[in-house]
Each structure stands twice: as C-alpha cells, then as structure tokens.
Specification:
This protein has about 290 residues and is an alpha+beta fold. It folds into 3 domains: about 90 residues, Ribosomal Protein S5, domain 2 (2-Layer Sandwich), CATH 3.30.230; about 40 residues, no CATH class; about 140 residues, no CATH class. Helices cover about 60% and strands about 15% of the residues. The protein is built from 8 helices and 6 strands, in the order βββαββααβααααα. The strands form 2 sheets. A 4-stranded mixed β-sheet has the order 1-2-4-3, covered by helices on one side. The chain has a two-stranded antiparallel sheet with strand order 5-6. α4 packs antiparallel against α6 and α6 packs antiparallel against α7.
C-alpha cells in the first residue's frame, strides 16, 4: 500500500477523567522525526508514544500534540497533617500560658501554616491508559489518510509512466525518418560540391552518424525503468527511496536522448520526458 507522508488526524475524549485531545500532523521528511507537545504531568509516557509511532511509520516528520484537562476522576485531594496541627495547638497553648492569656487559635490560621495541608498525588494510571487508547485511534486515522493520499499519488505516477511510454514509442517511430532526412541533407550538400557521388563513402558516413545518433539502448533502458516504477508501486512496504532512485535513472536517459538529438521533434520529446519525470519526482518526495 502506497503511503503519503502528508496527513492530519484528531481524536477527542470527554469523560470523568477530563478532556483529552490528540492532534497528529505529518509532513514529508527523509527519516522518521517525531516531535511531541505533551503536558508535563504526562511526559513520562512519551517513550510509549515514540514506540507506537515507530511501529506504524518509517518516514515523515510527525507532530504529536496532546491537550489534557483533568476531570473529577483525577482531581487531587487534600490531606491535613494531623500530627503537625496537634503540635501547633500544643505550642500555641504553651505560649498563651506564658503570656497569661487564652489561646485563640482559629482553624483557618492553622491551615495557612506551611505543611499543614498536604496535596495528594494524582493517580494518572487511568489517564495514561485512556490517552494511549485515544492515541491508537488517532494513529489509525493518520495511517488511513496517508494511505488514501498515497493511492492518489500512485495513480498520478502511473498515468505519467504511461505518457512516458507513449513518448518512447514516438522516438522509436521517428528515428528512421530522422536518419533518412539526414541522409538526404548530406546527399544534397555533397551534390553541390561533387559531380559524382561516392555511394559507398556516403553509406560509411551515414553508418557513423547513425551510430552516434542511435538511441535504442536509451529507449530500452527507459522501458525497463518505467516497468520497475510500476512494479515498485505495487509493493507492500515503504517505496519512496527506491522510486527516487528510479527517477534519477529516468532523468539520466532523457538527458542522453537530448544530447543525441539533431531534430526539433526529438528535442521536444526529450523536454516532455524531463517535465514528466520532474512531476513524478515532486510527487515521490511525499511518498513514504
């Protein structure tokens, strides 16, 4: 399955644990490069998120953002330090006795004393579990989007491969006409300066020219590379790097064709090939 590297997914949870929202954004990149924006209290399970990403994807820059607002199920409670309160009351009574007055200790005064109130730690186990369930759902959505976009890119590349094949056929059909036209041009020029043409010499010259202009090997290699592109598109694995290499090979053959061209028609075909290759190369940059 062809996968694009550009996609977006969002999943939301609302319940007694609070509000959780995962947002995943993926763009093309040479390697897998995750970036995380996770609340500090949940930062401890970032390695689990990284592990899940590595199992699903091999390339792409992926921004993972988690928003979390705790609900009643994870609100931290408070606990009174009873021993400290008793010590404060005893100390207050003693001080009041020394001063010859009554101890007038108000509860709110005691609560303001450092250490009297202890905040209980939140139990984030259920939160982590729910966050990972939600992450898996978001990853499923991201993968589905990448696959749909990848299928579209595959169709576009296949279409351009077929156009390239049509251009190869045009070159094969044109070459006999191009060589014959060159033969006639050479004959006409020689007739202007020679009363008697040496046919054998003419044939020798034409054989040398035909050899220099022969593009059969280039056309054969183009056909081979195009067939490989179409085959690679059917693989069930990351194919972006392989396709990028094949684009380099196609471009090399089209450049050779352009350098051998001695006609406007052949030059135009070579330019059309380069345009198609560049279009495919741009699309392939976004394939995993």
């Amino acid at each position: 399955m062809i996968c694009s590297m550009t996609a977006f997914a969002r999943e939301e949870y609302r319940g007694e644990l609070g509000l959780m929202v995962w947002e995943l954004r993926s763009v093309n990149h040479r390697y897998l490069e995750p970036h995380f924006r996770i609340p500090e209290e949940l930062r401890s399970f970032e390695p689990l998120v990284r592990e899940r990403l590595a199992k699903r994807f091999s390339r792409g820059k992926i921004d993972c953002s988690l928003r979390f607002k705790p609900g009643s199920g994870v609100e931290a409670g408070v606990q009174v330090n009873q021993h400290l309160v008793e010590q404060l009351i005893t100390a207050g009574t003693e001080v009041a006795g020394i001063m010859g007055c009554e101890a007038n200790l108000r509860p709110m005064d005691l609560l303001r004393w450092p250490g009297v109130i202890k905040e209980q730690e939140k139990d984030l186990g259920p939160v982590q579990k729910q966050a990972m369930v939600l992450l898996d759902q978001a990853l499923d959505g991201l993968l589905d989007t990448r696959q749909r976009e990848g299928e579209r890119l595959g169709e576009m590349i296949n279409l351009r491969c077929q156009k390239m094949r049509d251009l190869v056929l045009q070159v094969r059909d044109l070459m006999p006409q191009i060589l014959e036209a060159m033969r006639q041009r050479i004959r006409n020029r020689l007739e202007e300066v020679m009363e008697q043409l040496d046919e054998s010499r003419l044939e020798q010259e034409m054989a040398m020219i035909a050899q220099r202009l022969d593009v059969d090997e280039e056309m054969d290699r183009l056909d081979t590379h195009l067939a490989e592109v179409e085959a690679v598109l059917q693989r069930k694995e990351p194919i972006g790097r392989r396709l990028d290499f094949l684009m380099q090979e196609l471009n090399r053959e089209s450049n050779t064709l352009s350098s051998k061209s001695n006609s406007a028609e052949l030059t135009k075909i070579a330019v059309d090939m380069k345009v198609l290759i560049e279009q495919m190369r741009e699309q392939i940059q976004n394939i995993e």
